Amino acid sequence: ESRAGREPLAGARTLARDVLRAARTPGAREVLAAQVLWVFAYVALTPFMVLYAKHVLDLGAAAAGLLLAAFGLLTGAGMLAAGALAPDRVRRALIAGTLALGGGLLLAMPASSVAVAAAPFALAAVGAGVVTALGFPYFARFIPEGEAGAYSGVFFSGRAIASAVALPSAGGIVAATGSYRGLLGMGAAAVLAAVPLSRAEARRRPRLDPLPHRSALRGVVRAWAPRLSLGVLGVIAVGLALPALQGADERAFRAVNALGMGPEWLYQALDPHSRNYALLTLLAVLAGLATRRARYALGAALTIVFAAFASDAVLEIGQILFDRPRPEEALGAQAALVEGRTWAHIPSFPSGHLMVTAAMAAVLIHLAPRLRWPLLAYVAAVAVTRITFGAHFPLDVAVGAAVGWEVGVFSVALVRAGGLLPGPAPAPEPIVAPAPAPQRT
């Protein structure tokens, strides 16, 4: 074997040894994992930007180039701003930048015009600049003395490998989904990067505030089990009673549906599910960041996402058990319907939109009590428009809102018991009021 042939092999062995060493170093491994995720999230957007802008935003090549240039300028601005931060603010800024990068890309997914996509893209661009500027300085905190060269090589090699993997992965996602919007879905990887980042500092020094014991989580589950079980049984009971209630429900539907659908902007503001869910998630993260604890920002995101998926699981049970026709199927021309829309392919009971929206709103109200009345007004507006848009009967809406709310409050209690949200875990109200204590005479 020649010397020229042995040198690449020796270099690969050295790199592999350095990677294994970094993987065993507390803190360093978490930052490396986060970097791979955030690079994977956005690096493929650049080569695909012209195609994305053409097929999704209906822009020409010149306009797409300007959009990419604006993204680059905002990324540079984010780098400059991050470079001026004091050392004690690097960790929090890095986590915030990670969430901004991933959240911005996810918020841009439903957009079909530059006007709608501009703000999410700007958020993602600034986040990309922050993580690019602060990633290595934060990683350097975990490098053992005298090993800077090896660890630096691992850091930048990981970045290069993630970039190389992201490009074919992006092409595969576009082919699988049939849309260039899938590129922005890779932003979810950046949101996930906040998890190892939030744990990196704890790996370097002993925890001062350890999470409560698992028994606290089990206690919350035991306390809420009767109430949640009653909610599921309530859904089943109403579902079984639907034939008897159908006539009254149809009369109530026609009364509300006759109010009209209102202006087009109302439909655009309240009906697009994915965009509204993304905005509620962003509000939850901002509420968590307002506590100035990165762990709470992560907990807020975890809570509202868990509430959305848990309520959707209950929804699936209801829709599998009760394949209720939509108003357009049951009433035909008597049901005013948004032009060009049909919901006939999805069961009507209960309302999934209300269930998920109420669950997420319940989480937000517990995270940010000052938003209580605006959020309740928002849920009420969604409830009414589900009927005026011709999507659901009133019973679908009422059951969806009630069950979604319970799931949302339970989600807050569960995550608070795990120490990822401030304050005590909210206890469920008793199903049966306790009898008053006897008074002494």
Task: Please give the alpha-carbon distance between the first and last residues.
Answer: 103 Å
> How much strand?
under 5%
Helix content: over 70%
Task: Note the total helix count.
Answer: 17
Rg, alpha carbons? 26 Å
Strand runs, count: 0
Largest sheet: none
Shape assignment: globular
Question: Uncertain runs with pLDDT below 50, 5 residues or more?
Answer: 1-11, 205-213
Q: Strand pairing plus helix content: what structural class?
A: mainly alpha
Would you tell me the overall average pLDDT? Answer: 77
Secondary-structure element string: HHHHHHHHHHHHHHHHH
Q: In short, what is this structure?
A:
This protein is mainly alpha-helical and 441 residues long.
What does this protein structure show overall?
This protein has 441 residues and is mainly alpha-helical. The chain contains 17 helices and no strands. The chain is globular and about 80 Å long. 40% of the residues are buried.
What is the element layout, followed by pairings?
Layout: H1 3-23, H2 28-42, H3 45-55, H4 61-83, H5 90-108, H6 114-140, H7 148-177, H8 182-185, H9 188-204, H10 214-257, H11 264-270, H12 273-289, H13 294-321, H14 327-330, H15 352-367, H16 372-388, H17 394-417
Helix pairs in contact: 1-7, 2-6, 2-7, 2-9, 3-4, 4-6, 5-6, 5-9, 5-12, 10-17, 12-13, 12-15, 13-15, 13-17, 15-16, 15-17, 16-17
Q: Keywords, please?
A:
single chain; 441 residues; mainly alpha; 73% helix; 0% strand; disordered N terminus
